[in-house]
Amino acid sequence: MEIKYKIWIEENGKVIFGKGRDEILKSIEERHSLNAAAKELGMSYRAAWGRLKASEERMEKKLVETGIKEKSLHLTTRARTIIERFEKLERDVEDILQKAEQDFKKLLDDAGK
Questions:
Q1: Which of 12, 33, 68, 79 could form a disulfide bond with 75, CB atoms 3.0-4.6 angstroms apart?
Q2: Which residues contact 101 (CB under 8 A, 6 or more apart)?
Q3: Is residue 3 in a domain?
């Protein structure tokens, strides 16, 4: 038995942040390129760019910035903070669900006796 879930953050019914955007930003941080990040994630540049821009517009905050001397991309401090907090939220929910899963397994095992 397994409890499933998916977490994302919306405002006015529109996605602001979730696992996909988390992965895009982390890949940008590693590769310093949206194009390379999109390729790594198996998505088109246009799809990755669209999600990134939509999040920036909905938050009214920049998540990436271009390096001063080069054309490489870097995450803003705000983007790093959002990633850290989102991933902590996911870990917290996973802990809660793991405990609930154990409770349900016990209940179901006891119900059969």
A1: 79
A2: 1, 2, 3
A3: no
